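Q: Convert this sequence to structure tokens.
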Amino acid sequence: MKRRVGIMANRSLVTCKKTEVLDVYGQVAAFAVLKGNQGAIKLIRYTSDGQFMSMAEPADFVHVYDTKRGYEEEREIDSFGEISGVSFRPDTESLFIGVWDGTHGSLLQYTRSRNNSYLDWML
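A:
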């Protein structure tokens, strides 16, 4: 049975650095607690297939979680500046992050790495 996920983010927008992931079918306790580095989580996005979730802090950090592995596997992307937006490409191959620092703006693109072995054709 697939989980229907609900996100409860940051009870206090200034001091809380965690986001709770809940099952919307009445699970009382969170099955995952995702922590940030600086403060409240600003943006949450899922890939179209639901395998990955990105979570952006107001500045400098974007976290990418593997939802199929229970949010236990995380990659942290560290940049410099305010995070203005996060989006996945519809085919889930790329993650785009908008960054602004007061003087410059930029769009960062991260592409999934693949193990290019001779068995890839079987996937």
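The mean pLDDT is 77.
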